[in-house]
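hiii, so i know i said id send this last week but things got crazy w the move. better late than never?? heres the sequnce for the chain we talked about at the cafe, plus the structure i predicted for it. fair warning i was half asleep when i ran it
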Amino acid sequence: MRAGRVVLVAALVVPAVPAAAQSVAGPTLAVEAATDARVRGLSWSDGRPALSVAAAVPLGDVRVEARGTTLRDSRRHGGADVGLDLAARYTREMGGWRAGAGMVHHAFLDRARLNYLELEASGGYLIGPLDLALSASYAPSQRAIGGDNLYLRAGAAAGVPGTPWTVYGHVGRSIGDGDANGGRERATRLRPGGGDYTDWRLGAERVVGPLTLGAAVTGTSIDTPVTPTAFTDRHVGTRLAATARIDL
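okay and structure toks below
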């Protein structure tokens, strides 16, 4: 089954995009405050406000990114106070089409035993102001997450013509095996309750001077309350979160 998941991730970029110059933006730095750091419908900050700093630098055709987030003693990540995502991503564009691949290392300050790696593949198409995207993230079997995990996502975003507003949404599905490398307890970090689940997000952003202000509603198919483990918390239902970001 795991081999099939790897093939599925790779299949997203199999339709080869014709050779074209890589569209890589310059270096970026941003600071964001959020009322809740939510990832795939789950809180990563124990349901409390979070601050994050993100930076990205292009190196040829690859973009290297780092993002640090305050996790507020997150139960989901073993009581970690800070999470750090280190990523390298390659994107190829031709006309309105794009395809990409990359990897992300999720690290947790003072909780190195809970670090894990994900492989990514993505594809998308831009139609006027509408941006459509498909992606897959696969975490091979690792002790930190009690097995493997595959996340499939379909999303769309659109700038509202003549306004500073952007609206966006996605539907995702998390699938995994929690029997390997330590069992189901650690698997509940990414899949509360130990089973597969669906998540969704619907939100909007507005540019106000140097700030980008946003709000999004997220939800999951997980029935609450879930069976408690050392890595589960109560923040799995429908939630509204607000964000404010400044690009430096």
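btw The mean pLDDT is 87. thought thatd interest u
miss u guys!!
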